[in-house]
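Record copied across here:
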Amino acid sequence: MLLDQIQCWEATDVNDPMTQAAGRLYEQTLAPDERIPWVWIEKSLERVGRAAGWRKHLLLAAPASRQTDPAALAGYAYGAFIPGYGGYLCYVGVADWARRMGVGTRLFEAFFRAMDADAQTADDSLPFVVWESHRPSPDASPADREVWNARVRLFDRVGGLWVEGIDFLSPNFADDDGDPVPLQLFVKPMDRSAAEFNDARVRAMIDGLHERVYRNDPGDELYDGTFPPGCRPRLVPARLAAGMKLVFSV
């Protein structure tokens, strides 16, 4: 299947069978400790179109000729434009049968366009879109590591940069008393160039993610654990997150 046969659109009806299929795919593609309850995402669809606050989007992808067939749902993306901050892509998932078909690329591109449109509607800037991903542990299986490598290649392909130098600590959604989940951050500069993201701006972006999304402030365990003494987060090519070498043409 070719990339141009995959279409993306926005879900607006929680009762739509395609939205319900997205809920099933969401639970299949994300570990319990990384995902919020699906009902939270459903509730956000009921507020689509409201002018104030976050502008949330659930985007779906399927072959153009099968956009009403739940079995043909190829992937989903969920996130929001946060006024005064930027774009936040919470979750992206692709069905196993649709891998290596360009679905992830199409979803990222559709989400970037949605964020740009939101910023224009709000008469606001869009300095970046940020997202998180869970890197496998050192003792992970070769299959898990290959999934990570493929994911990082996708991030690199859509223009993402890796925030090297930190593990972003997020809550454990499966267990309130469980250990925090360490995530890697990736960023696509939008209104600003990558060169403009100096130390202060990278730090402010991470601060904003803790404070605006997770409601963590300095002094909180997750906030302080993200910034161990001496850390200096910086933006580098996404492929370095998987240990891939940079290739320079002459």
Notes: The beta strands are 6-10, 55-63, 75-82, 86-94, 128-133, 161-164, 168-170, 181-189, 234-237. The first helix runs from residue 17 to 29. The CA atoms of residues 141 and 147 lie 10 Å apart.
